[in-house]
Amino acid sequence: MSDLGGLRMFWGTGSGSASKTLRHMEENDVIISFTTTQEPWGGIDNLFIDSGGYSLMLETGEHGSVRDYFEYVEGVGATVAALQDYPCEPEILSEYGRTVRDHQERTLERAAENLAYIQDHNVSAEPMAVLQGWELDDYVRCIDRYREAGVLTDYVGIGSVCRRNAESEIREIVTTIADELPHRKLHAFGVKQSILNFPEVRDALNSVDSAAWYHRMYQGKPDAEPAWHTTTKMYLDYKRKLYRQFNMDVVARDGQETMEAWT
After folding, report:
1. pTM of the complete model
2. Residue 58 in 3-state DSSP?
3. Which residue, among 82, 206, 204, has the nearest Cα to 153 in the 3D structure?
4. Is a pLDDT exceeding 70 seen at residue 59?
């Protein structure tokens, strides 16, 4: 269970050992990137597929076909699927000589193509439009453009907020978007654990995701593949710290985890 007092945590996985950990711990809420082409295991209640925009931008600067993406989404039985987006991290824009507005417009064009495909092929996963930008005004403009284009979904993701060390900036972006979209569910991609210390951020969001519990083991040794029991320890350590922020504790028993409210 990954419900943090109403805020759902989707656990990211990018390797065999990480997948084995989440499967062994019977994690019900999982996010998988399309770029990994991983096959999910049975028992996942909420499977979130991310289009892998950041990785694709680093590699080629472009997404593959809409058909290929949603055939994967349907094939793995996803419950939520992010629409294909174009992240706005400065290093990506610099690599291709593009601007934030360029990537916002590309994101809108893909969103329209994605939603048309979903409708025509009866894709069952809930679609998630992804807001892109870098400065606060960028995100507000992106919301306006989504409204103008008529492609704003009920579930909305906030992109390009995970790779920056600016807690106050992220907090302002998240809360402003929540004010602009009071009747939409919001998801923040890869937000840092420390951001969730702010009650107004937690209240603004319906869900978040993180692969930090796993990727932190690769710092300084990117080619290392830890054993799955090592990733399980890191998973429990990370989850324990996370849940303590919500006045809960994670207790390991016989390879499983349970949650107990602090008294």
Report:
1. 0.89
2. helix
3. 82
4. yes
